[in-house]
Design brief:
heterodimer, A: elongated, B: mainly alpha
Chain lengths: 97, 122
Amino acid sequence: MFTVAIFALFISMVLVLIRLYAGPTLYDRVLAMNSFGTHTVLFIGVLGFLTGRPDFLDISLLYALINFVGTIAILKYFRYRAIGDIHQMPTDQEIGK
Amino acid sequence: MSTLELAIEFLSWLFIVSGSIFALIGAVGALRFPDFWSRLHAVSITDSAGVILLVIGMCLQAGPTLITVKLLIIGVFLFITGPTSTHAIANAALVTGLRPPEGEGLVGAEPEPLVSDEGDNG
């Protein structure tokens, strides 16, 4: 059962990585990275069950936290070209969109 | 093996295999769909159905232990942050000017004008 799940998750991760490499726009890549992180969280959890060591769930939880913060940080960086003080950042009009 | 254990085993098989199938469907959709907005739709299948079914299946497999609590924490966290980050990506793409392709009889959605911060000068 867990073998089936881990194979399916592994194939899904490979497919999402192909999209991450081939994505025509930036947002395709960010979306694929976010999806890859979700798949990784599930993969680590299932791997813990498969090897009889469910302590891997702690790593899985940590990965979920990092994945979310990382996605938001990447989006913020590509929007404002800075990760930091918001008063230093250019406004939307200055970006010109 | 009693009937209850058999039923739990069967249910966890069902949940884990269907969750894997949903994760696979989401990945195939993310690879094969033609443009960004439809890929967004495909990826959210993994974020909702795949996560929920896999976590429930693993909870049934673990029994009433601390592992189940951790699994539920992971499930609730992914259930909240998945749609949030998907919305953030969609909003960033829309603001930057990426538009859904307009077919015949369809009108592309225009975003609301950005709110100017007038009251911020004081």
